[in-house]
């Protein structure tokens, strides 16, 4: 793909993203936002904390022009488009460069404080069944643009940089994909990674205080405002009627989408506003769930999703995620048999993975790492009357999400019998101090607290001491295979592998 200098000037001017354009008539053969990705013919976008010294390599490696904020034009002789919003400019130029691949994809965008990845995999699996494998995925865990393993990429962000996103979308379209499911973080809206992109269906799962701090959102209001940008960019919206701040959410949604394009879902008997579709568990156990979906009112009857579904993932929050995925996929063409099939087989790596042991009860490996998700998980386990003791192994990362620590302690205090406070990516902080902060919020004297900063030893002890009717939750690290310590990714076996190994050693 090739863009001319005139194309770029016009694209940026049309979006009001241009301060000045260079005298230049070259052809752009490649785009990059990192100096290490520059090849001859590259247009480089200079954003974030780009260091002027990178420019030496950029010129040496053959960049022919840059899009940069003010002041950069004086640092280089390279032709420069000056913009006061380079990330937005990058999105607009990237989508054009890759030929607007979004126009050939039915696109579902998913946001929410919790459940984005789980819901994305559910929608992906339903659509795989509905479209005979013509669906792409962009999630925190993986990006999938085709069915062969070479088109499966490890993700580095929940929502990729726009340049990567549109390149992957192009690849998906070229691979014959007709649908795409993607997670859209509030940070992606804030950092303009999805600037100018519209979704056929936007799913809004829930919102609770999170992601507030350095490098994220300064306040909850800022977090909420950026999450609600999904409403401004979606043709239709699937909204959780049980979400906190529902009044604010529906008010904002209604400003952008007519009522017959807003689909509300909720839990049967929850004290929530009227929804179009409800779910209710008909059989829930520690390993999975069977649930019923009921449509209410005239609008909902177009959905045709009433009936009973089996989900191979436990937790009523996952039934809620599943109903959101069902409605959204219905709106882009999936039918009920595809939903039955997709939900029966869906697995989300590191989310609610269940290990049933012979003598040490049920073990969950789960990514829950803030108050809302740990509380929801422990509450779900508690609902099961056969559970004896509930043990949680948990820590919190260093230099990140500091505000989560008291929330983790509170959730443990409300729901656990035993807790092992341990390490979770301590980075440059002392994990013992992080554990102190979590422990300060465990006010329930009934909770037995152990401190074991070696995560592998903590998991070993927790499993060893659990009886056959107990549950052990290994929280917050999912299938991560490293601990971030002092800026280094230190190899770590992963919680699931440790649990399986300990269980087989104990049974032997
Ligand atoms: C605040 C934030 O979102 N920052 C992201 C942003 O940083 P940035 O633009 O300042 O980039 P930087 O790493 O400081 O580097 C500046 C520029 O120099 C370039 N560079 C860098 C090194 C070099 O040798 N040469 C070079 O050209 C980089 O490519 C970049 O364009 O762009 C970088 C990639 O270009 C991201 O890695 C980085 O995410 C950081 C790591 C991050 O932690 N982001 C989190 C907050 C985030 O985005 N999270 C959400 C999920 C939240 C949720 O769960 O809901 C997400 O969508 O992932
Ligand atoms: N709807 C929900 N409400 C509350 N908790 C949930 C919900 N869905 C999932 N969870 C819990 O949150 C954890 C993280 O889920 P998931 O990875 O799907 O969310 P996410 O929004 O992608 O998270 P993150 O932004 O932290 O990557 C799960 O392992 C589960 O414990």
How is this structure best described in words?
The chain has 508 residues and is an alpha/beta fold. It folds into three domains: 3-97, 3-Layer(aba) Sandwich (Udp-n-acetylmuramoylalanyl-d-glutamate--2,6- Diaminopimelate Ligase, Chain: A, domain 1); 101-345, UDP-N-acetylmuramoyl-L-alanine:D-glutamate ligase (3-Layer(aba) Sandwich), CATH 3.40.1190.10; 353-507, Protein-Tyrosine Phosphatase, Chain A (Alpha-Beta Complex), CATH 3.90.190.20. It is 34% helix and 23% strand. It has an eleven-stranded mixed β-sheet with strand order 10-9-8-11-7-12-13-14-15-16-17, sandwiched between helices. Strands 18-19-23-20-21-22 form a six-stranded mixed β-sheet, with helices on both faces. A four-stranded parallel β-sheet has the order 3-4-5-6, with helices on both faces. The chain binds ligand UAG and adenosine-5'-triphosphate (ATP). The site of adenosine-5'-triphosphate (ATP) has 22 residues, from helix 4, helix 11 and helix 13. Ligand UAG is lined by residues 33-36, 47-50, 54, 157-159, 161, 185-188, 191, 211, 215-216.
């Amino acid at each position: 793909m090739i863009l001319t200098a005139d194309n770029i000037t016009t694209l940026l001017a049309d979006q009001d993203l241009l301060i000045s354009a260079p005298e230049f008539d070259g052809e752009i053969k490649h785009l990059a936002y990192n100096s290490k990705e520059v090849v001859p013919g590259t247009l480089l976008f200079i954003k974030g904390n780009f260091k002027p010294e990178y420019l030496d390599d950029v010129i040496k490696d053959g960049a022919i022009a840059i899009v940069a904020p003010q002041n950069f034009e004086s640092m280089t002789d390279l032709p420069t488009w000056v913009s006061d919003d380079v990330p937005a400019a990058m999105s607009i130029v990237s989508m054009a460069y890759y030929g607007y691949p979004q126009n050939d994809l039915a696109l579902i965008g998913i946001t929410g404080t919790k459940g984005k990845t789980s819901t994305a995999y559910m929608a992906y699996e339903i659509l795989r069944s509905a479209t005979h494998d013509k669906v792409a995925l962009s999630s925190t865990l993986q990006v999938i643009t085709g069915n062969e393993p070479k088109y499966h990429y490890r993700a580095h962000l929940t929502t990729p940089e726009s340049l990567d996103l549109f390149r992957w979308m192009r690849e998906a379209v070229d691979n014959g994909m007709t649908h795409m499911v993607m997670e859209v973080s509030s940070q992606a809206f804030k950092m303009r990674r999805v600037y100018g992109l519209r979704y056929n269906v936007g799913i809004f799962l829930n919102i609770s205080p999170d992601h507030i701090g350095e490098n994220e959102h300064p306040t909850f209001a800022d977090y909420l405002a950026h999450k609600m940008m999904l409403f401004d960019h979606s043709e239709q919206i699937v909204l959780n009627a049980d979400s906190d701040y529902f009044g604010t959410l529906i008010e904002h949604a209604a400003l952008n989408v007519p009522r017959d394009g807003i689909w509300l879902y909720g839990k049967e008997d929850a004290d929530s506003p009227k929804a179009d579709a409800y779910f209710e568990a008909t059989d829930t156990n520690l390993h999975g769930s069977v649930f019923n979906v009921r449509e209410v009112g005239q609008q909902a009857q177009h959905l045709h999703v009433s009936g009973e579904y089996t989900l191979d993932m436990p937790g009523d929050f996952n039934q809620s995620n599943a109903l959101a995925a069902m409605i959204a996929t219905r709106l882009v063409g999936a039918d009920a048999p595809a939903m039955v099939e997709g939900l029966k087989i869906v697995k989300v790596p590191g989310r609610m993975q269940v290990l049933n042991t012979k003598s040490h009860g049920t073990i969950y490996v789960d990514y829950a790492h803030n108050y809302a998700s740990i509380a929801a998980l422990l509450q779900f386990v508690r609902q099961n009357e056969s559970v004896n003791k509930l043990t949680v192994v948990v820590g919190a990362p260093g230099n990140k999400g500091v505000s989560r620590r008291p929330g983790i302690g509170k959730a443990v205090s409300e729901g656990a019998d035993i807790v092992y406070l341990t390490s979770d990516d301590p980075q440059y902080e002392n994990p013992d101090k992080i554990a102190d902060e979590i422990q300060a919020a465990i006010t329930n004297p009934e909770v037995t607290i152990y401190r074991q900063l070696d995560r592998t030893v903590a998991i070993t002890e927790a499993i060893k001491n659990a009886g056959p009717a107990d549950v052990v939750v290994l929280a917050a690290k999912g299938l991560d295979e490293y601990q971030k310590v002092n800026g280094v990714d230190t190899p770590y076996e992963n919680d699931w592998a440790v649990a399986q190994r300990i269980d087989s050693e104990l049974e032997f």
